[in-house]
Design goal:
Pfam families: M20_dimer (PF07687), Peptidase_M20 (PF01546). By secondary structure, the protein is an alpha/beta fold. The protein is built from 15 helices and 24 strands. The strands form 7 sheets. Strands 3-4-8-5-9-22 form a 6-stranded mixed beta sheet. Helix 6 packs across helix 15 and helix 11 packs antiparallel against helix 12.
Amino acid sequence: MLAISLIFAGLFTYTQQNGFHFTSPFHSSPLKEDAQVDFWCPLAPIPGPPSDGLKDSRELTGSDIRQRQVERLSAAVNVSTQSFEDSGDVETDTRWRVFDELHEVLRKLFPLVHENLHVEKVNKYGILYTWKGSTVELKPILFMAHQDVVPSGPAEKWTYAPFQAHYDGQFVWGRGASDCKNNLIGLLSTAEELLRQRWTPKRTIILAFGFDEEIGGERGAKHIAQHLEKILGKDSLAMVHDEGGMGFQEMGDMVYALPAIAEKGFVDIVLHVKVKGGHSSRPPPHTGIGIASEIVVELEKHPFVPRLTASNPLMNLLQCQVRYSPREVEDWLPDALASKWDEVTIGKDLARSRGPDVRFAMQTSQAVTIFNGGEKDNQLPDSANITINYRIAPHDSVDKIRRSVLDVISPIAKQHDLSIEELELDSQGSLLLSTRDDLEPSPVSPTADSNAVWKLFGGTIRSVFEDVESFKGKTIVAVGDIMLGNTDTVHYWNLTRNIYRFSPARAGTRINVHTIDERIDMDAHLEGMRLYYELMRNFDILEDKNLS
């Protein structure tokens, strides 16, 4: 049958000449007979092992290496590199100085990296490691992590002190153990190991570590990206890999790897209601707080709706699930996708059946997060302020959100005889609308079968994780997802369209990120090292003439 042969046609591996050969039999799973479904979601081929003479990546999971990695990760966690919302300039705010301590720890832990790679400090605390490849014509690949961590909160609430790493035989506990010193130490350890084996890449490898990702990356990743664009130019990288994604999702005998290929945008809209004050003994029908409350109620009556567009990464994930896990999906979903139901109809149906995580992959979220007004119980407030946070879906924009808010609040302003002003900064006015901290949704990175970078990236995920004990006998399907939050990659959009955000961790291995008792399973840490190890080697197979 043509459909079955096409499935097996996806089970190739790369050879060193970018040819293909079969590797292993497909793990059986019922497939839809529909011809259109059979063309959805081709499996990324598993790369054949490079003929570089290096040790197998499975050797990186031994007990001696595990103990070494526990010690390395613990040493990094012990340095309290917290970033704060009110952090100042690196030259004046002394709280940044702790990053000098971390840099010294890294220098001692990874002597080969610091002896053999070109090391640059960018804006004092950003670190850029460049491992020059032997073939300078090949576009570099870049791996990212960040050095900073979110504040720990009260230490007494932790089982173990947040900056005194503890290993319990399975997990390393401490602030930053999962986010993101796990990735930082894993990348540097991988480079150290490859240097120990005297390996030299053909393709230049860059490691870029910002230091303020948790507060937006304006001092760290932004400066690093600008520096790289200045020396390398736009669209100069073959791939950028960073933290993120949704890990793995098991459905029957299939496992979906979910690197994020896009991020939602965001904007804060601030509404400032200004009215006449006075004594509370002679109030008007509606005070400033009353009018502001009416605005909030009306906004919450008009949420954005979920919309499944063709360009949303969720579309490809659903197609993959329909093809490879037809018994696990909604009965109506195959027909809905194949017949191209109305975007809003299918969006609403999916939101009902799959809950808020899927809803907000398709829908711009709206949340009133700050509301204040009034100073004294017998004084009419002359102003009230509302802040509404929006996380913008790929099909929306900052301007569309602003116009939508105006449409909702204009009738209220007219009812209360208020004029509306739109300004970027505070000003006089009866109802002032301003925006701040805005970011458009990210570009969507390619996952088409024709994109050689994605194919190699997805195939490498398969090669590593189909070998992991808990996934043995299952097939990994690499498929893009969308992140509701943002990473340092927002500063790298000019450098490549191939941006993949993937913290390679199975369910239950990264616990309590951003909260009390954060910890990482060392199995996940070592599996991440395996992925970095294979990616660095496999990209030496890929020739730039095959990039798309």
